[in-house]
Amino acid sequence: MVRETTLTPDHLVYPLFLEEGKAIKSEVASLPGNYRWSLDKMLKEIESCLELGINNYIIFPHIADKHKDKLGKYSYSSKNFYLKAAKRIKKEFPQASLISDVALDPYSIDGHDGIVRKGKILNDETLAVLQKMSVAQAAAGFDIIGPSDMMDGRVGAIREALDHKGYSDKSIMSYTAKYASAYYGPFRDALDSAPVAGNDIPKDKKTYQMDPANKYEALIEGELDTQEGADYLMVKPALNYLDVIHVMKENFDLPIAAYHVSGECAMLIAACQKGWLNYEEAMPETLLSIHRAGADCIISYFAKDFAKHYKKQF
Ligand code: PBG
């Protein structure tokens, strides 16, 4: 009667990794129970998730080396299998809401979210690529454009490009407070997208992702994203940053999203596999805590398992 927080599958977004080809379902070693899917298999997976009540999907492409370059040109090419796949998924399941990923890292031979030159990330030159990528994703049918790159000014640049091309109806889920975290490892394994070792390539993303020591800086980022036209403000990762989620929810009227990232899921899966924790209990408690902290919606690799767990209650 007095329970303050209720989590349902409506609040969840399920991340899926897309691979070029057919009949592929290959497990991500560091994220058991998650796969790189070819489109044919992914369509079946989405169908079964829709039946469980999951309506929201965020899709990330695994890009073969042959498509990578320094400028991420394949990201907006008409040949891009990720864009073609979105078109097909929306055709089969118009009720599913699809969130895209905007960043250079899957497409970049340097493994960075922006263009790298002489050891530096070129913020402003990257914006033009992000604009093209976003417009191509909107044209492909993605409902929500998701810039995860952390370049300054990209929300405004993307909003302007979308409106200019007639996509004023598409919304932007900005990775507002994305920290330079150690918890992205399994995701980078899944996409083969880690920064590449090299002389003139920064070895980490600390010049554009946030310092884990900073909470109030998230409010500056939130203010900028709001002014630039974001429709959702995201905090990422989630569990180590519940205080940031809370302060964002207290200070902004826009919906707050939280990304419960790969490493956070992997450590719980590993403990459960060892028999040290009970998955059926720990998994829903974890997601509930993120919602209680103030996240309106949660991106989590546990979305499908949570939906199954939720269904069992009735
Ligand atoms: C990169 C991106 C990352 C994630 C989502 N988009 C990794 C990174 O910044 O290196 C991580 C998500 C996860 O760990 O689940 N654009």
Structure, described:
- The protein has helices at residues 39-51, 81-92, 123-140, 154-164, 185-191, 217-228, 242-251, 262-273, 279-293, 303-312; strands at 12-19, 25-27, 35-37, 56-62, 97-99, 115-117, 120-122, 144-145, 171-178, 232-236, 256-260, 297-300.
- With 314 residues, it is an alpha/beta fold.
- The model has no long low-confidence stretch (mean pLDDT 97).
- 48% of the residues are buried.
- Strands 1, 2, 3, 4, 5, 8, 9, 10, 11 and 12 form a 10-stranded mixed beta sheet that branches. Strands 6-7 form a two-stranded antiparallel ribbon.
- The radius of gyration is 18 Å and the shape is globular.
- The chain is built from 10 helices and 12 strands.
- Bound molecules: ligand PBG.
- Ligand PBG binds next to helix 5.
Secondary structure elements and pairings:
Layout: E1 12-19, E2 25-27, E3 35-37, H1 39-51, E4 56-62, H2 81-92, E5 97-99, E6 115-117, E7 120-122, H3 123-140, E8 144-145, H4 154-164, E9 171-178, H5 185-191, H6 217-228, E10 232-236, H7 242-251, E11 256-260, H8 262-273, H9 279-293, E12 297-300, H10 303-312
Parallel strand pairs: 1-3, 1-4, 1-12, 4-5, 8-9, 9-10, 10-11, 11-12
Antiparallel strand pairs: 2-3, 6-7
The structure holds ligand PBG.
Task: Label this structure with key terms.
ten-stranded mixed beta sheet, two-stranded antiparallel ribbon, alpha/beta, 314 residues, binds ligand PBG, 12 strands
